[in-house]
């Protein structure tokens, strides 16, 4: 305990000295998010500095081994770091599919050369990744993918199409499922490969969503050369890597229900509605709903920590990620429903972003995809029923 107390004191002092003012407090808009990459765009110089300082310390991936650029922290130390970041209301130093999804897969399945090549760059935010999984004919039934990799000796030639590729138009590299043995059963014959999005033959086309934004893309591969050194795991056993990564993706999506990037719902409501004579939000029903949300968010944060402990101890059920993904998605949708209710008529604005919290209506519409991306809520409930609750006939 004394060691943890010392670590907390050291961490608190370092964060106070190194977290710039611009990277503290609620994010004003999506532009404040730090994604990194070779063409990184930062909202302010302070955001760039925040990534550099956290990346140098390895604290963008605090529990990854130091030899791969991570922080090398124990689970208990990582919890202390997270609590100290919350204390100063620090914004995430890095939002990264590399940290959330690919990194754990490389740690579990990658070669030593792949780990040393990619993981430090991921930690420092120097490489931005996208995910090549879903296809027009392979969504919920992901194992039906048809993107094919033809063996050419020391490399493959890849042809096919992916869809719902988040931020593919901004990514540097892609981790991608391809079919390397078309004669094998559909869950076999799939391989997990990595390649640069600037490789000749790769093109992307953003998809405009109901929110008016285009975070998703169609991605096309026309005779794309992929080196065999970029195969992760065993040839034709990419489904093993894909399943492992999906668990991390679903946990990441679920975490949106606990991590609130914008202004607190209660503050938005106070600004819009005002207070009663007792200094409380002057709308009792809304006040009760906000309190219920904050309690559920706190409980979910503790549940996420508990599952993290179980994962570290190798005691977590493989299907627990589906539970976190489902509940976190619903929690995030609830939060944005309340933001719309709290904002009143101002929350309906569409063209401008004059409000401090950005466009509430666009963000609210975006959350509708939470229960679709990463596996629909219906799929998650089926997994929970079958593998966690062991219901008959599920």
Automatic annotation (TrEMBL):
Name this polypeptide is given: Acyl-CoA dehydrogenase family protein
Lineage summary: Bacteria, Pseudomonadati, Pseudomonadota, Alphaproteobacteria, Caulobacterales
Oxidoreductase found in the keyword field: yes
Domain Acyl-CoA oxidase/dehydrogenase middle, chain residue ranges per copy: 130-224
Top-rank taxon: Bacteria
SUPFAM superfamilies linked to this entry: Acyl-CoA dehydrogenase C-terminal domain-like (SSF47203), Acyl-CoA dehydrogenase NM domain-like (SSF56645)
Names of required cofactors: FAD
Residues annotated as domain Acyl-CoA dehydrogenase/oxidase C-terminal: 236-389
Family recorded in the similarity comment: Belongs to the acyl-CoA dehydrogenase family.
Ranges for domain Acyl-CoA dehydrogenase/oxidase N-terminal: 45-126
Keywords: FAD, Flavoprotein, Oxidoreductase
Provenance organism: Brevundimonas albigilva
